[in-house]
């Protein structure tokens, strides 16, 4: 991968406003786009790509400004994720997950815990990974004096080998209480397995991980005071927040697919020999398809932006979040997740109708957009998102906070 050096990024003025941060993301995306298809085929661990995110400062976007962070909010973060995903869906996912795991200390932890984590993360430009696959209930947490010991296995651990710190999750032995803790990714007993071999999102380092007696102090257990968890409704905002991350890298991938396809159509697609047109861009079905797909994408982008603003109101005043406001927000997230899934799948599959047979070569790599969307949209069934919306409309029913709602 060809990236600019840390010195090059340091010579540029540091972004200060949301618009400047989004522009910085666009500059990073331009670097990623130069060899995105080749890197997708190679499937190598994205060490250089994560270094680019660090050098450009994007990893500190949500961090406190007084400690070197960007001091931005989730509205900006979602736009940044979308911008990066236009060029590389895998890196967009990695960055979006990083933002969530960085913010997880604030979602779940005490003020003392999250202030410490956010300061250290911003100062050191930590990149976060997470071994928090909720469908795997085989990580047990035991007590050993003032330490907690995590033992078990997770099927997925996004970020794994390219992360500096990893969020762990397990169930405290003999209870139904979940424990979250942030540990260095090179902790003794933490073994990442190089077994992520899926058709899409190939550079997300989402393979399995073994936890063989990973130790961390009790004091690092997020939200626990004197070994008792102090719950807040805000704790449950992790799911709609990460689902909105999903939405935005889906939309970024779809936008990248459209932009890439349009460039191909303008320069390389041939008009149909019986259509009576000299240029592919004059073919009525080509013009109609691009107009149709763009209109659909713009519509769901507008909804995503509106929902992001609604979510930011909750993040701005965590102690005021109620079951009602949390539930209403989750319904809105469910609605945009359903639409983003459908539109992104349509865009990334239909671009071939307007690029032509020659665009399907491996070298072009246009299939990566569809493979990336198809792979991640299977994370949880979209029908259940529509169900949340339908039950809310018909009965005023709020989604029960779970690992997926």
From TrEMBL:
UniProt keyword annotations, A-Z: Flavoprotein, Monooxygenase, Oxidoreductase
Gene Ontology molecular function terms on file: 3-methylbutanoyl-CoA dehydrogenase activity; flavin adenine dinucleotide binding; monooxygenase activity
GO biological-process terms attached to the record: L-leucine catabolic process
Domain Acyl-CoA dehydrogenase/oxidase N-terminal: start-end pairs: 28-116
Entry keyword annotation includes Repeat: no
Superkingdom per UniProt: Bacteria
One Pfam match: Acyl-CoA_dh_N
Acyl-CoA dehydrogenase C-terminal domain segment(s): 245-379
Protein name: Alkylation response protein AidB-like acyl-CoA dehydrogenase
Organism annotation: Streptomyces calvus
